[in-house]
């Protein structure tokens, strides 16, 4: 039997999604909780492997199991065995050919920036503080050259091992909501550090260090060393993973991020 789960987490205390030796990871915590409920070893596969410190409201995983448990057991029961900063939000039975990563057709990320000259004290693990004034409209205009399919070498981490840097960006929105600047981006998939590198370069435009046309030049030069600094992990959220409609997977619950809509 194959099951899918929707997972939400605060990644601040973890060294990323992927299981690692001697350091805490989201995957390890989830597999331990599922194995306790199933009374057998469970291995999970995710739609995306988020970096250390990155959060999620819409992560999707799947796993195979030989045991039958109620929906309540796979949700509330698993949550009872998880730390407070990780939660199962829904469960759905899936066809045998489903794969959380390879069946996905798009991913959505949100990056939240608190833009004020003084640092905040509350919710600091869920956003990035940027003290210089930011022109969100300028960032939005500059980012439109990234729409469509391109070689995103200028926005991939130097240690990225993906076979290709080509990705298809469906939309990129930058909006100011009071003291917050919110970047929303959707693509068929993302390469390592792609979102954080895009945000870091857009911030160079937003604070006036670079003209709006610089992003297009950066995309064309295919040289990561020419781009802005990688934005911090703490403001980044995996908000949704999209699948073909016939799978009818539940939509993620936005939670506190809904206040940014």
TrEMBL record:
The keyword RNA-binding does not apply. GO terms for molecular function: RNA binding; tRNA pseudouridine(38-40) synthase activity. Its EC number is 5.4.99.12. Keywords: Isomerase, tRNA processing. Gene3D superfamilies: Pseudouridine synthase I, catalytic domain, C-terminal subdomain (3.30.70.660), Pseudouridine synthase I, catalytic domain, N-terminal subdomain (3.30.70.580). The keyword Isomerase applies. It catalyses: uridine(38/39/40) in tRNA = pseudouridine(38/39/40) in tRNA. Residues 8-102, 144-244 form the Pseudouridine synthase I TruA alpha/beta domain. One of its GO terms (biological process) is tRNA pseudouridine synthesis. The active site is at residue 51. Substrate binds at residue 109. It is an enzyme of class 5 (isomerase). It comes from the Bacteria. Pfam families: PseudoU_synth_1 (PF01416). Formation of pseudouridine at positions 38, 39 and 40 in the anticodon stem and loop of transfer RNAs. HAMAP family: TruA. Belongs to the tRNA pseudouridine synthase TruA family. Homodimer. This is tRNA pseudouridine synthase A.
């Amino acid at each position: 039997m194959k099951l899918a789960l929707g997972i939400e987490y605060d990644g601040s205390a973890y060294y990323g999604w992927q299981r690692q030796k001697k350091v805490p990871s989201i995957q390890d915590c989830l597999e331990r909780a599922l194995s306790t409920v199933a009374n057998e070893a469970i291995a999970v596969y995710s739609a995306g492997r988020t970096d250390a410190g990155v959060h999620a409201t819409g992560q999707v995983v799947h796993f195979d199991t030989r045991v039958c448990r109620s929906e309540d057991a796979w949700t509330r029961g698993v949550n009872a065995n998880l730390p407070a900063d990780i939660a199962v939000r829904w469960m759905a039975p899936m066809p045998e050919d489903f794969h959380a990563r390879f069946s996905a057709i798009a991913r959505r990320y949100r990056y939240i920036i608190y833009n004020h000259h003084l640092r905040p004290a509350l919710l600091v693990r869920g956003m990035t503080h940027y003290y210089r004034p930011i022109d969100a409209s300028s960032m939005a205009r500059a980012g439109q050259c990234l729409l469509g399919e391109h070689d995103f070498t200028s926005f991939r981490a130097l240690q990225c091992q993906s076979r290709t840097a080509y990705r298809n960006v469906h939309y990129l929105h930058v909006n100011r909501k009071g003291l917050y600047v919110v970047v929303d981006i959707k693509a068929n998939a993302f390469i390592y550090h792609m979102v954080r590198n895009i945000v870091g370069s857009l911030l160079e435009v937003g604070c006036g260090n670079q003209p709006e046309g610089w992003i297009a030049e950066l995309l064309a030069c295919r040289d990561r060393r020419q781009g802005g600094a990688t934005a911090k992990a703490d403001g980044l959220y995996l908000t949704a993973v999209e699948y073909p409609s016939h799978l009818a997977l539940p939509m993620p619950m936005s939670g506190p991020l809904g206040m940014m809509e």
